[in-house]
Design brief:
six-stranded mixed beta sheet, three-stranded antiparallel beta sheet, 11 strands, globular, disordered N terminus
Length: about 325
């Protein structure tokens, strides 16, 4: 039997109203489901779905399951996926503007980190726009602390240790301390320690607790070395193809995610530090000698940074300092 025009029209309406009409975007992230960044992104996805009545959905691929961390930005740029998250200072080799939040002892509190992001954001937005990318929101990690076996009293105690690194700044930091940097992504931390690939690390209490650092380390010191950030970006062409109401839904959800994410981070810092202690990690305040030694390394790194940083990156640092004066 040949369907009538009215039947065909009705079938078309049914198809348009079905879930098949929804736009579903793959969304790779480098961190596991237990990390608050991923949980915040899950809520972002739910907010967008609710605001668009299911018209735009995200499938979250956590812990580097779709693309390894180092490939996520390129995957978004090349439209292999429309959206993704990565650690901002991983891009510092492209321009020093990306890495200021991981320069030791430049911004060591949430207040300073927020002020730094306000100075970074317009420059980073322009840099990413040149690659067809648009930042949606950025969320800070808790300040970075020092994990070791045994208490570290001075910088000299780090000499010779195999040190986990996750960006260029931490590689340089480890080398200046006389340690041997080894690139290890967050999901691989437990295995790296269990096999002796690394012996110490600087990372957040969030990553430490998520990695169950008490299984392979004994001491943690909240040296508050820096407050790095993750960034969620979208491919500009993919965003522009969305209907205007969906674009606005994404922007509104992104604004809420940034506010919520920073609040989650602050709560996380206290809760995860306590979790480390509750599971047998010795949490100790760094000695004045250790702090001064680490600050000296940070000053040396900033001198090197100034020699090669772009004018735009230097403008960020100037604006950040002016805002704090």
């Amino acid at each position: 039997m040949i369907p009538t025009p009215s039947a065909l029209f009705a079938a078309g309406l049914t198809l348009a109203a079905s879930p098949l009409a929804a736009d579903t975007w793959d969304f790779p992230t480098p961190y596991g489901d237990g990390i608050f960044h991923t949980q915040n992104i899950q809520q972002f996805a739910e907010d967008v779905s609710a605001a668009t009545d299911g018209g735009l959905e995200f499938t979250i691929h956590s812990a580097g399951s779709l693309f390894p961390h180092e490939e996520i930005k390129g995957a978004v740029r090349s439209m292999q996926v429309p959206i993704g998250e990565f650690f901002l200072s991983r891009l510092s080799n492209e321009d020093a503007a990306y890495g200021l939040d991981s320069q030791p002892f430049v911004a060591t509190s949430y207040e300073e980190a927020r002020r730094l992001w306000e100075a970074q954001e317009p420059v980073i937005t322009e840099l990413l726009a040149e690659e067809g990318l648009m930042p949606l929101f950025s969320v800070a990690w808790p300040a970075q602390g020092l994990y070791t076996n045994g208490e570290i009293e001075t910088v000299d105690d780090l000499n010779g240790l195999r040190f986990r690194a996750y960006n260029a700044q931490l590689e340089e930091f480890a080398q200046l301390a006389g340690a041997a940097p080894v690139q290890v992504e967050a999901p691989d931390i437990p295995q790296a320690f269990s096999t002796g690939q690394v012996e110490a690390m600087i990372t957040s209490p969030s990553t430490g607790a998520d990695s169950k650092a008490w299984d392979f380390l004994t001491h943690y010191s909240p040296i508050n070395a820096w407050v790095p950030k993750n960034l969620v970006v979208v491919n500009q062409r993919a965003f522009d193809r969305l209907p205007e109401d969906q674009q606005q839904a994404v922007l509104d959800a992104a604004e809420a995610a940034e506010t919520r994410g920073w609040e989650m981070s602050m709560e996380e810092a206290e809760a995860k530090t306590q979790e480390l202690a509750d599971n047998g990690i010795t949490v100790y305040e760094p000695s004045d000698e250790l702090v001064s030694g680490l600050q000296e390394l940070g000053d040396r790194m900033l001198e090197t940074w100034n020699e090669t940083a772009s004018d735009e990156a230097k403008e960020i640092l100037d604006a950040y300092r002016d805002a704090g004066s």
